[in-house]
């Protein structure tokens, strides 16, 4: 388990104030300070992390920043972390030959999470072969979703579909999204 003292973070912040680029306009200075401190914090904490933990830290930091600025829906972030809360799914799995019942339950719950996911269950029921090809793609997070869902979903929302349908391909998708959320400051 990693532990960092408040004094450690305080010293990082003070150094960030001293070393960050200066600006005469206060909002611009605050933006520069925030960006510098975020990067400084990330690089200094990553020095002490095991390699296997750097992606998780980067993703946690990027999602926390995006959620606090209102760029990320907290219910969707919660769904990414926990998945479906109920496994009681009244809808029969139309693709049981290649899609697990657990994945189907997650997709059914995702269908009701937000308007952008509406119709996901019906699409999968109607176009099972298109969805199977998407799930079998080597990089589904970079492959267009069937039925125009790619145009409706952000890259973060695409992670939710990947999490539900092809959980084993979630880590590469998170690596791409972390760089996107962190504006290139990923691990």
TrEMBL record:
<dbReference type="GO" id="GO:0045505">
    <property type="term" value="F:dynein intermediate chain binding"/>
</dbReference>
<dbReference type="GO" id="GO:0007018">
    <property type="term" value="P:microtubule-based movement"/>
</dbReference>
<dbReference type="GO" id="GO:0051959">
    <property type="term" value="F:dynein light intermediate chain binding"/>
</dbReference>
<dbReference type="GO" id="GO:0030286">
    <property type="term" value="C:dynein complex"/>
</dbReference>
<protein>
    <submittedName>
        <fullName>Dynein heavy chain 11</fullName>
    </submittedName>
</protein>
<dbReference type="InterPro" id="IPR026983">
    <property type="entry name" value="DHC"/>
</dbReference>
């Amino acid at each position: 388990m990693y532990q960092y003292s408040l004094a450690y973070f305080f010293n990082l912040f003070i150094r960030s104030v001293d070393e960050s680029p200066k600006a005469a306009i206060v909002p611009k200075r605050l933006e520069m300070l925030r960006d510098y401190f975020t990067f400084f914090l990330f690089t200094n904490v990553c020095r002490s992390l095991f390699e296997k933990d750097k992606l998780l830290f980067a993703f946690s930091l990027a999602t926390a920043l995006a959620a606090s600025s209102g760029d990320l829906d907290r219910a969707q972030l919660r769904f990414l972390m926990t998945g479906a809360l109920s496994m009681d799914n009244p809808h029969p799995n139309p693709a049981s030959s290649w899609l697990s019942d657990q994945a189907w339950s997650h997709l059914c719950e995702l269908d009701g999470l937000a308007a952008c996911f509406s119709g996901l269950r019906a699409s999968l029921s109607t176009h099972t072969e298109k969805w199977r090809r998407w799930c079998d793609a080597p990089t589904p997070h970079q492959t267009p979703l069937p039925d125009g869902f790619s145009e409706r979903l952000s890259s973060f929302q695409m992670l939710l579909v990947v999490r539900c349908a092809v959980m084993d391909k979630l880590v590469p998708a998170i690596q791409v999204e972390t760089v996107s959320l962190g504006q290139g400051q990923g691990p």
